[in-house]
Amino acid sequence: MPTKCQVVFQGYPNERISIRFTHFNLYVPDNKNATKRCTEVDNLSADVRVGSRLSRIDVWCGIRTPPNLMSSSNLLQLEYNTKSSKVIRESTREDIGFRLDYKFHTDWNMSNMKAKVDKKKECRFAFNSSEHTSGKLWSANYPGLYPRNLYCEYIFHGRNDQVVHIHFEYFDIEGFNQCDETTQSDFILFSNYQTHDRTNRRFCGKTTPKGPILSESNYFRMIFSTNDIFDATGFYAHYQFITQEKSQISRVKLTISSSQLPSSSLFFVIFFSFLLALLSIF
């Protein structure tokens, strides 16, 4: 007969739970299409506690292995629903079922990011150029689903003559339109000030960074905020502290193809560049 089995992970109040699946293969009859509706076949669902209620993350079936999961609170629940009989599952030659590794922890499992953790804030990381001039940063639980109801700050402190250069290699933040509160969007926000910044830039959904993000001063703050509705796999980026002289050069680039210029124009460009080089010497 169909059965339902619940696995509840309950930590201390200050703990959260991480889950990584090492094997996943749920039974699917030949006449069923698991890619359309998992609720019609054997499936596994995951819920996390958000406030005083349980919020469903997703439902998986077949060989669709769930991503790495992380709760933002101290409770995470898995529910294994079988529509098939035990006899049928055991009669197959395949290894039917799932296996996983779980971990209770009080941090965000981001020690490899080489950032200073602010113990006064729940999720705040500081990058100082005096310790590392370049490095990597990512969202909590990357490349798995990031936790819900998350508010993380990434703070950059450079020397007086430095600015911060951030380049995203991967970007998957759930959101819509302008990524504001009215759309209930998760978002990434950049600010050049410790207080409120009216010129802040938000990114989410299809509004992704089209190129490198450059700060205006030696202080830079990146905020990553998620709500209790949407899920995605977050971001992965590189950062670098560079001097303001180099940053100004990178902002202005002269790209002229010599093949598209007549010989007279090409001579003028070469002569003008040579003249500027002489003036810089004197």
Element layout with pairings:
Blueprint: E1 3-10, E2 16-25, E3 43-50, E4 53-61, E5 69-70, E6 75-82, H1 86-91, E7 97-105, E8 116-117, E9 124-128, E10 134-138, E11 151-157, E12 162-172, E13 187-191, E14 201-203, E15 213-214, E16 219-225, E17 234-243, H2 244-251, H3 263-281
Parallel strand pairs: 9-11
Antiparallel strand pairs: 1-6, 2-5, 2-7, 3-4, 3-6, 8-9, 10-17, 11-16, 12-15, 12-17, 13-14, 13-16
Describe this structure in words.
With 282 residues, the protein is mainly beta. It has 2 domains: 3-105, Jelly Rolls (Sandwich), CATH 2.60.120; 111-251, Jelly Rolls (Sandwich). The protein is 12% helix and 39% strand. The protein has 3 helices and 17 strands. The strands form 4 sheets. The chain has a 6-stranded mixed sheet with strand order 8-9-11-16-13-14, with no helix packed on it. It has a 4-stranded antiparallel sheet with strand order 1-6-3-4, with no helix packed on it. Strand 8 (116-117) and strand 9 form a beta hairpin. The termini are far apart. The relative contact order is 0.15. Residues 251-270 and 276-282 have low confidence and may be disordered. GO terms for molecular function: channel regulator activity. One of its GO terms (cellular component) is ionotropic glutamate receptor complex. InterPro entries: CUB_dom (IPR000859), Non-NMDA_GluR_Accessory (IPR053207), Sperma_CUB_dom_sf (IPR035914).
